[in-house]
Write a structure and sequence with these properties.
Blueprint: H1 17-24, E1 29-34, H2 41-54, E2 59-63, H3 64-67, H4 79-98, E3 102-106, H5 112-121, E4 127-133, H6 136-142, H7 147-152, E5 174-177, H8 183-197
Parallel strand pairs: 1-3, 1-4, 2-3, 4-5
Helix pairs in contact: 2-8, 4-5
Bound molecules: adenosine-5'-phosphosulfate.
Adenosine-5'-phosphosulfate binds at residues 37, 64-65, 68, 77, 82, 85-86, 107-110, 145, 147, 156, 158-160.
Length: 213
């Protein structure tokens, strides 16, 4: 249903995205880390946040495990619940990006269609999909939370990679093979992608405040 159908009006702000970008010296964007549980998404997200913050960027991590304590505390792991989880995260990430922040989302997001919707919600050209690629055997071998063992024992249903699907990204912006490189190399690859896309610097435009402003 459209906004108009529900008697809603979109209110335009008086601040342009480019003003925020000039203020912050960066363009808000979404860095979306997807991959199996135990692939290293949270570790990579934290290290990227650390690196970019040290370089004086405004960065914020939205981590699936954390967000499920609050914003998504009502959601489980059925396909429908995951779809809603990713819809909420995609919308929240888009708001962060609109506010000028580099938002790093670390969630399994196993369904391609859900990830595509998150890309569509983000500012155009400023959604970067990072496939945190580790084979299931590697993730299961790490099993940092003991969840694979419990899933194999039948104690956890719908466990991604065991009893629920993971759809591999077909055209990710970056692939980080966490079994084959260390964390800082993964961060290098993602930061390199952001650098090349131009989001880590202020846009090079001259902007004049109107006489009324
Ligand atoms: S998603 O599929 O909806 O994107 P999300 O990233 O938010 O998942 O949460 C995944 C985390 O929830 C995992 O890292 C793991 O700690 C925990 N978890 C609990 N049950 C499951 C399950 N059935 N499948 C996958 N992860 C689960």
């Amino acid at each position: 249903m459209s906004g108009a159908d529900r008697n809603l009006t979109w209110h335009e702000g008086m601040v342009l995205p480019i003003e925020r970008a000039l203020l912050l010296g960066q363009s808000g964007c979404v860095v979306w880390l997807t991959g199996l549980s135990g692939a290293g998404k949270s570790t990579l997200a934290r290290a990227l946040e650390r690196r970019l913050t040290t370089h004086r960027h405004l960065v914020y991590v939205l981590d699936g495990d954390n967000v499920r304590h609050g914003l998504c505390a009502d959601l489980g792991f059925s396909a429908e619940a995951r779809q809603e989880n990713i819809r909420r995260l995609g919308e929240v990430a888009a708001l962060f990006a609109d506010a000028g922040t580099i938002v790093v989302v670390a969630v399994i997001a196993p369904y391609r269609a859900d990830r595509d919707r998150a890309r569509a919600a983000a500012p155009s050209g400023r959604f970067f999909e990072v496939f945190v690629d580790a084979p299931i055997e590697v993730c299961e071998g790490r099993d940092p939370k003991g969840l694979y063992r419990r899933a194999r024992a039948g104690e956890i249903r719908n466990f991604t990679g065991i009893s629920a699907p993971y759809e591999i990204p077909t055209a990710p912006d970056v692939v980080v093979r966490t079994g084959a490189c260390d964390v800082s190399e993964g961060v290098d690859a993602i930061a390199g992608c952001l650098e090349a896309a131009g989001v880590l610097r202020a846009p090079s435009v001259t902007w004049k405040q109107s006489a009324a402003g």
